[in-house]
Amino acid sequence: MGAEPKSFRMRIAPLLAQRGALAGILTPIFAFLVALAINGILLWSIQINPLEAYKAIYQGSLGNTYARVETLVKMAPLLLAGLGILVAFRSSLFNIGAEGQLYVGGIFAAGVALFMGPFPPWIHIPLTVLAGFVGGALWALVPALLRARLKVSETIVTLLMNYIAIELVSYLVNGPWKDPKAVEPYTARFYASATLPIVLTNTRLHTGILIAIAAVVGIYIYLNHTVLGYQLRVVGENPKAAGYGGINIQRTVILSLLISGGLAGLAGTGEVAGIWHRLMMDISPGYGYTAIVIALLGRLDPLGTLVSSFLFAVLVVGADSMQRTVGAPAAAVLIVQALVVLGVLAGDYLMRRS
Amino acid sequence: MNWDQFLSYGFLVGLFAGAVRLSVPIVLAAIGETFSERAGVLNIGIEGMMVTGAFVGFVGAEKSGENLLLGMIAAALAGGLMGLIMAIFSVTFRANQTVTGISLLVLSNGIAIFFFRVFYGLTLRVPTIEPLKPIEIPLLAKIPFLGPVLFSQNAIVYAMLIVVGLSSVVLFRLPFGKWIEATGENPHAADSVGINVVRVRYISVIVGGMLAAMGGAYLSIGELGLWTDLIIGGRGFIALALVNFGGWNPVGALAGGFLFGLIESTQTRLQGMGAPVPAQLMIAMPYIMTIVVLVLASRRGGQAPAALTVPFVRGET
Amino acid sequence: MELSSIMEQEARLTGQDGIVEMRGIVKRFGDLIANDHVDLEIRPGEVLGLLGENGAGKTTLMRVLYGIYSLDGGEIRVNGQPVDIRSPADAIELGIGMIHQKFLVVPTMTVAENVVLGAEPTNGALLDRGFAERQVQELASRYGILVNPKAKVGRVSLGEQQCTEILKALYRKADLLILDEPTTVLTPRQMDELFDTLRKMAADGGKVVIITHKLPEVLAVTDRVVVLRDGKVVGSYKTQETNERELAIAMVGRELRPVISVAKNVRGTVLKMEGISARNDEGTLSLKSVSMEARAGEILGVGGIGGNGQRELVEVIAGLRPTESGRIMIRDRELRGADPRRVRAMGVCYVPADRHGMGTVGPLSVAENLILQRHAEAPFSRRMFLRHSQIRAFAEGLVASYDIHCQGVDAQTRTLSGGNLQRLVLARELSGEPDLILAEYPTRGLDIAATEYVHQVLQAQRDRGAAVVTVLSDLDELLQLSDRVVIMYEGHIMGELSQEEFDIERIGLMMAGIAESKAEVRI
Asked: Which of A225, A228, A245 is closest, CB to CB, to C388?
């Protein structure tokens, strides 16, 4: 794992075989449908009517106002983390550590929201959000440096740091940051001035979704309209040409992972400052891994990621409903996720052959 | 904390015996991955194959009236199946090996949690089975220190040691082992002398999956006697790092695995004794150590198989 | 396949022992006829040289024999019997072995392990390493091959790696050995050892074929020479009965076509190289104290058989490869160290041979590719932002003037055809009005129209006053386009000729390694 990574082109070319072409959109759609079909067979094998199950998913996520709001609530962290993965993958860096970066983002946000203040909201909230971004970015800095300077593969390091991050949160909420008034392991409530305002009254929908959508625009602009974004794309597609074009590859790699981690950190910020108003364990049911699927399904494109994050928010929210009403385990969502990615990979292969 | 207790004979015996037991899953997974990587395929999904093995092994054992052997065999087969999928995607489809591996991890988790719910319902009662009992080897078990540490272990521990020996023989003393090496270093050279690169890679990855699954199954049926979705907890990734650190050699994997078993064994005992170190730091220690291992290994220079992660296409040198 | 043993027996009885015949071989790649009804006889006890320049068809012919390519016409006979060779495995069964230019060895294994790979001797089920090493040693001694069977191949010299390859073939009972340009990586002493080995093999009744473009070698070791040109056999000679001149003319003999255009305004020196030495990617010295000049208003063509240092020459000037000694001056300013950005700043541009690798970034748009080196400069960017309107305008201008066929400047670059990709690279490089243009095989893979276009562009640049240095593999093209020509051989410049001095015989000799006179060539 410490060996020199192979040519970027060989690593990413099979990943993005058909970007931009019509086939680029067809393959994910097709893969998604195939995944639903295979999952349907699985459900049928345990005597559950797949159509009922999918209807339950639909009802649970889009069937009424409350459901739709919940879907948007879930979409925010998925979209943010997905954008983070997008940025990393576009520069040919496999950041599998979004989960950990999300948690550390939450830690930093909690730090500001618990111990700094009181400030007026117009100071406190941006500060909290910024802290979350910085936290995620810092957590990605270690693998970034190891990769840029020592050529250690970022894949494993980011993965391992997920586990370390979880322990870090556990330590804080069970120890120094624990709410003295509570028995459960979580922190005290954040300053009200640091919590993200609700966007839709009487719902859980917080500003996080706005931040996420702003991030879509921001990343789109960054990648396509800035010098650094251009450099990131060149480094990801053809490092040889990048060197020839005078681009500093090491700096680009580090910057890319910092942004990637920062976005995941924002996802964590949204959860702690927008929904729970505390730091606690288990704030993420695997968003960091789902984000990878989302980014790949979205063909590493900001707009595509927006669509696929919505799609997966539907699945994630609907799955709980499905489990309650039809009895199909919510873990089916994980199966669909994996099948989708495998389907995309298989589809790309078939496209290349024809 | 009682430091005298820490250095007592009884404590040390327990510590090392525990280390040997705890090293089994990582060692088996690392040996499996050694096969795979020596042939040129990087299988990140090995964590998923351990999850699969743990789950299938547990279900197999539990449903068959605690027939642990059946559980092991079922786990190996399931792991082999996962390995086959990995091989299809990475060798035939030439898909990105990292992405495929992560997908298989998610798939394994999904299938395991899904069917666990199906078999055991959405209840809070945790199904358990009796884990393996130790088997004492006559005479050898009486040796002071080494006796209880090495020769009073359960069947799988002995099996692990046999696997280490067997793998070393296969990889270094059998022609097939040379074919694996050639496939991983220069597949074109292997191809030019008539070695079927595709077949060698498929076999290596499938073997890798089987061993990893058996490693995972050991945790659920050999050690803990139950299954949860967190049971593997990143051991697969640690095993990945150990392959590198161990120099792509089964004995190296054994050494590295034992080291991590020791860390884990120390951690559980220190926690139990009320050590003044936060429990979470102890739990995080293996992961931190793995990163350190990776850094050290990278400084030692690349001895990785030259064609690792490079798909083979005849004619494209 | 029991055919070989039966054939061996029969052949021994009938006296047709061991002759390999290729009759009327035809091999096409698309429209290109690489082998045009070639007849070749390979006889036992003989070292045969296959001589020819780039693209003559010699490697293709042998690859057909070895089963790497399938033949489109003709037949192959071994010991009088027609055979069907579909893969290297078939060829190996027939006793044919081929040593390629790029060795297929496993660096982590020993020489012996490499030789027996795939056919390892075993003791029971286990490898019998000692037996393998003894066998390899025996084989090596028989033919005077000096190599240590226990040495790890990754640590031995390239010459010893080649020995490993030869032993591999011999271990598999090859009695026909084909070597493709075998001496490229050898020291003079290793070359002598190789020739001794080959002669021993021939004396032993084996057959040896050497593919080469080097006359000194042909004369040193072969018994017979067959010369190929443009896919056809143009001559077959007994080595003892021919000479350099005859062979050189056979190799390149042709009517000189009229030049395309003449340089009108040759001015001062732009590039001056003195005593440049450099190594290639494998670490071999591929430029040996080269000295050369390029002048403004002139096209300097760098010719010779590919692989003799041309690529390294251009890379050294472009700042992509470090030098071991010597100086490079561009307009009297010395170029130190390998820094492509500085080189660009000095007014040098580089059109690489590899359009897809170094040249362009496929998924990015045409416009984005056109500003690759200048993306961070005004007017294409301001502060941190790209200025797409400026980039687009610039790109559209270039697309128009270079007639790049694409679906707009926002089209993905990888949708462009080869010819249009080359136009893109040219447009990008030449848009800065450089003083020195380095073009490395600029017409490779292009059709006639695209090739002519490239010629026009280079000539236009020359007429503008730039110095053009271009490496070309096609001799016709080289002589039509260049105002002056240097021929490279084994890292040296064998000779320099101006347009009036173009003489096919002199050029052929230079390409094949025969120095004009000891005094003239700087070795």
From this structure: A225
Which residue range(s) make up the domain with A348? 22-48+333-354
Please report residues of C whose CB lies closer than 8 A to that of A243. 340
Q: Which domain holds residue B293?
A: 13-121+128-299
B3 confidence band (pLDDT: 50, 70, 90): low
Burial environment of residue C253 by CB neighbours within 10 A (0 to 12, 13 to 18, 19 or more): middle
Domain membership flag for residue A104? yes
Q: What is the pTM of this model?
A: 0.87
**Whether residue A227 sits in one domain with residue A95:** yes
Residue A15 domain-assigned?
A: no
Window B:292-311, CB contacts with A under 8 Å:
294-295, 297-300, 302-304, 308-311
B246 neighbors B34 (Cβ within 8 angstroms)? yes
Is residue B122 within 8 angstroms of chain A, CB to CB?
yes
- Confidence category of residue A10, pLDDT binned at 50, 70, 90: very low
Q: Which residues pair with C349 in a beta bridge?
A: C437
Question: Best interface-test mutation with B: which of A342, A349, A353 has the largest number of B CBs within 10 A?
Answer: A342
Rounded-to-integer distance, Cα B225 and Cα C190, Å: 66
Q: Which residues of B touch A299 (CB under 8 A)?
A: none
Chains that touch A (3 or more CB pairs under 8 A): B, C
- Does residue A83 sit in the same domain as residue A203? yes
Same domain for A265 and A347, yes or no, is no
- CATH, residue B85: 1.10.3470
Is B283 part of any domain?
A: yes
- Region of C194 (left: φ > 0; alpha: ψ -120 to 50; beta: rest) is alpha
* Residue A328 maps to a domain: no
Instruction: Flag whether B57 is in a domain.
Output: yes
What does the alpha-carbon distance between residue B269 and residue B289 come to, in Å, rounded to a whole number? 18
Task: Tell me how far apart the alpha carbons of residues A90 and A234 are, in angstroms, rounded to a whole number.
Answer: 9
Query: Is B5 contained in some domain?
Result: no
For the packed helices A154-174 and A98-115, what is the interaxial angle rounded to 10 degrees?
30
| Residue C506: both structure tokens together | 């002199």
Any domain includes B308: no
CB contact (8 A) between residue C361 and residue A241: yes
C497 touches chain B (CB under 8 A): no
**What token pair was written down for B280?**
């979470």
The distance from CA B209 to its chain's CA centroid, rounded to whole angstroms, is: 9
Does residue A242 lie within any of the structural domains? Answer: yes
> pLDDT tens digit string along B264-315?
888 888 777 777 778 888 889 889 999 998 898 887 765 788 888 888 887 6
> What is the predicted pLDDT for the residue at A302?
94
Query: Residue A38 has what pLDDT?
Result: 92
Total count of domains within chain A:
2
Question: Is residue A198 located within the same domain as residue A342?
Answer: no
| C446-492 tens-digit pLDDT | 888 888 889 989 999 999 989 999 999 888 889 889 999 999 999 99
Q: Is residue A292 a contact partner of residue A96, using CB atoms and an 8 Å limit?
A: yes
How many domains would you assign to chain B?
A: 1
- Same domain (yes/no): A285, A136: yes
CB spacing of A244 vs C372 below 8 angstroms: yes
> Where does residue B79 rank: exposed (0-12), middle (13-18), buried (19+ CB within 10 A)?
buried
User: Which chain B residues touch C105 with a CB distance below 8 Å?
Assistant: 186, 189
Does the structure show a pLDDT above 50 at A7? no
- Terminal Cα-to-Cα distance of chain B (whole angstroms): 62
Does residue A31 sit in the same domain as residue A107?
no
- Do C122 and B175 make contact, defined as CB atoms within 8 angstroms? yes
Chain B and chain C share a number of CB contacts under 8 A equal to 52
Same domain, residue pair A142 and A272: yes
**How many angstroms separate the CA atoms of C414 and C427, rounded?**
16
Strand pairing partners for C50?
C211, C226
